[in-house]
Amino acid sequence: MATLTMARGAYTQVFRPRRLWLVQLVANPILFLSFAGWLLIPVANAGQLTLNVGLAILLAAAWLTLHAGTINHFRDRNSAAPAHDGHPILRDAFRRAFQHLLAIAACMAVLWMLWPPFDSLDVYRGPLPTYIRSILPVFLRRHIPLSEFEATFTALLFIGHWIVIPGLLLPLMVVAADAGFRGFPTRQGLAIWGRAVASLSYWFTLSIAAVIGVLAVRGILMWTPDFRRSTLLREYFSLGWRVVIAYLLALTSWMVICSLLGRFAASSAAGSNHNAPRNPGA
């Protein structure tokens, strides 16, 4: 029951911080357009190269601050004594995230280092299922087509890439966003990671968010409507609404994950503070 309560609370709370949604809705397209502009900067000389590197660092810092600050805000909303109007919480959440950019970037670097091994396994999408099916007894091969093995292999790659690796590292991102490097060796930091990783609601919610935020978004963007009389205007209209829907789905999935992470972090911190020895002289 506690598992369902935690997941239900994350879903019901995700739409409450309207200011945070406004920041996310506006900031992400701005960062995307800024990134697209950054790709057009030439690197023909030292000055342009310096500008290119400097803008890349600024964009990365803004992107990390935006999303780590979002996690901090949900954590603050679930803390014992949030601000009465919520405005200082939002401001303080992004300030703490900006102060701990190096620790956040270190977590992201670990994430990006673990992803390539799963990407390299994609070359076995054809040979490995074929080999596994070939070594099975004949009576099994008659009832299990090759497509089932290929689908299973693809599903395992997706689970490892978008659920297992992020699921193990996102609780560390919570610690880094709130306390930086000094939060990792503490009992509270370990409690946040351990409680999240050991929770079925965490993995269930993360799995649902990954399916919606990755598979559904990918399917919507790659979908080609069957126009009877296709025109350029209809193609633009189709692309426009598909991009908007995909963006809203991806953002909602991410916000649900942030809400769940914030609840785990706040509850773990409350448990650590409750179990900590009190000062008799206080």
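The record above closes out task 2.4. Task 2.5 opens with a second protein, given below.
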Amino acid sequence: MLKFIHLTDTHLVEAGRSIYGTDPSWRLRQAVRSINAEHADAAFTIVTGDLAHWGEPKAYEALRTELSELTMPVKLIIGNHDDRSAFLAAFSAEAVQGSRIEPARTDEAGFVQFAFSEGGFRHIMLDSNEPGVSWGVFCQARAQWLRTELAQASEPVLLYIHHPPCKVGIPAMDRISLIDVEPLREAVMPERHKVRHLFFGHLHRPIAGSWMGIPLSTLRGTNHQVALELNESHKVPGSHEPAQYGVVLTDAQSTIVHLHDFADASARFDL
């Protein structure tokens, strides 16, 4: 069985700064310590975007510092809060040398898209970042790369993207999810039978469901959350619910995602 860690929406800023009343570096540090202590046997950690809050180089330096403490390989994709150029510079092969963070990779068009095989699965990482906007974009160029990867995949596929490909019933977030889902849908549809699960970020909420019959899931971020507000709102409703990471266990028969509130200090006892 393959075990890996799903982190998302770390929203790092320059070291020593805070957002929404909390220090995202400190919160991520708590997650890293928990992962190392409790799940050091995981094959890798994947972070599904919004790595930095404003996309500035110093935020990526702070992120690199925190993630370099992980004892397993770390794979990164970007979200709407990220700056693609700054990310690629901060996570170049030279910049991450000596750590377990894997160098940033792009497809031929320069999007942060790549694939690898591990644990009997083909893992395909997608880029839904569009500079200057909060919603997700998955254009025909990105879709063509995905179409080729899926057609060539000889193993079951796990997909990773920042923006969800469907509405979830939180109007303020649905307006800034993947706006035009057709290129993604058309790329996936012919090979849908290969896709075991889709992991995403962006929503800062523990959510599970399906899209086109494909199971999907996301979780809370490591710093701040989106409140469960299903009524119409002109602003994104924020909250400070407990931060999470996901522990994924998957094999040929099943995919299980445990959501761990890593900072939970409540008492434990035998039942």
